[in-house]
Amino acid sequence: MTRVCVVGSGAREHALVELFRPHADVVATPGNPCIDGSVSTSPLDVDADLFVIGPEVPLVEGLADELRSRGCLVLGPDRDGARLEGSKAWMKEVIVAAGVPTASHRVFGATELEAALDHVTTTEGTIVVKTDGLAAGKGVLVTDDVAEARADVTAKLTGESFGGAGRRIVIEEGLSGPEVSLFALVSGSTCAVIPTLARDHKRLLTGDGGPNTGGMGAVCPAPGTNPELIDQMMDEAVKPTVEELVRRGIDYRGVLFGGFMLTPEGPRLLEYNIRFGDPEAQVVLPRWVGDPVPTFMAVARGETVDPPVLDDRSMVTIVCASEGYPYSPRAGDLITGLDDARALAGVAVFCAGVGTDAAGRPVTAGGRVLSVTASGSDVAEARTRALAAVSLIHFDGMQYREDIGGTVSAPGEVHRRTPDRGERS
Ligand code: AMP
Ligand code: GLY
């Protein structure tokens, strides 16, 4: 049986493991106590027929290069292609060269503080200030307030707010519209779309209020989208980008995640990520029909693949986060109800920040703790099921959004539940 190694420890990796499990022998490194097949060894010490790297940091740091240099088959770009996520300035250069519709931008380095401040002061409308380097999803400021933009530019360029990642910034024109996430499988010079669009919800609170997070939930298909939109994004953005990468001698083999804004002028590419989204993977991957292993292996070999077939279910995932997330997540709260939630029809619980206490019971061990996914014949049914599953899960200080997949009610509400069965451990 083919042996697949999934690298990472979050709910996205848990969803990848569950996708492969019926078809392969799966290990996850490091995984987490909720993911069967988790091993604490380095991926470099794992013997597998295929490595699938979940998060961006090891890709940007060159894990795929290292594995490939040892003769391993890897799904995930080398360090050169990983710069699409590792450097927003470089990503913009590539997509502008490729003619992809995107927000206009300028790049400023650490020695250009005055010029950057002048630029934000004289720019009209919404200003977007991004760190060039990785900032765990927290490096972007979107504001209409010039004073706030100036303070952010200063804190970034001096290294105060994001260290080296912010000492180069991209300042962009602010766009507006709903956002969607598109996933393509790129095999060097060809690519195949995963034919759906997902929408994640990055703000902590119901009604898209509160601080930015790694993602509090996701919906698939994103309401209001259609196959023509997917074709347009592939034709206008992903395919020209792949051609541009080839022109630059980059042999990208992996998932390319396009984050688009649907503006009145048409879809605009905001960013590329070099891997599946989290929590988008938890709503896209469960819809995959058939054995994914041959497709993933072919992509890793640089062979052309057909777009995968997805079933026509709608999926909603609700993230349950720990007390204090996203600022200072609390660890050690006992988690109950996982098995009850999993027993519901159409429900899967993917684990991220989960550890075990001395008695081997699951406890919180990170910010985003669980991703509770449910399917339905439409988004409303999926949401009802996901909420029913969440209602069975308890840990002290649990935070989640009840509006994922629904219509917004009171902006800024946070849902906290003090468990009646739970106890702090
Ligand atoms: P990014 O990491 O580049 O996707 O940016 C994170 C978030 O910032 C996006 O999901 C958008 O909500 C917002 N954003 C990024 N670029 C822009 C832009 N040009 N205009 C408006 N909002 C943006
Ligand atoms: N959901 C956005 C991300 O994975 O970066």
Can you characterise this structure?
- The chain is an alpha+beta fold.
- The chain folds into four domains: 3-77, 3-Layer(aba) Sandwich (Rossmann fold), CATH 3.40.50; 104-173, Dna Ligase, domain 1 (2-Layer Sandwich), CATH 3.30.1490; 179-301, ATP-grasp fold, B domain (D-amino Acid Aminotransferase, Chain A, domain 1); 314-417, Glycinamide Ribonucleotide Synthetase, Chain A, domain 4, CATH 3.90.600.
- It has helices spanning 11-20, 56-60, 63-69, 79-86, 88-97, 113-122, 146-157, 227-247, 281-284, 293-301, 338-342, 379-390, and strands spanning 3-8, 25-30, 50-53, 74-75, 105-109, 127-131, 140-143, 168-173, 179-187, 190-200, 203-205, 209-212, 217-220, 253-263, 266-273, 314-321, 347-351, 354-356, 362-364, 368-376, 398-400, 415-417.
- The strands form six sheets. Strands 15-14-9-10-13-16-20-17 form an eight-stranded antiparallel beta sheet, with helices on both faces. Strands 2-1-3-4 form a four-stranded parallel beta sheet, with helices on both faces. It has a four-stranded antiparallel beta sheet with strand order 5-8-6-7, sandwiched between helices.
- It is globular.
- Residues 103, 128, 130, 140, 142, 172, 174-175, 179, 259, 270-271 line the site of adenosine monophosphate.
- Adenosine monophosphate (AMP) binds next to strand 6, strand 7 and strand 15.
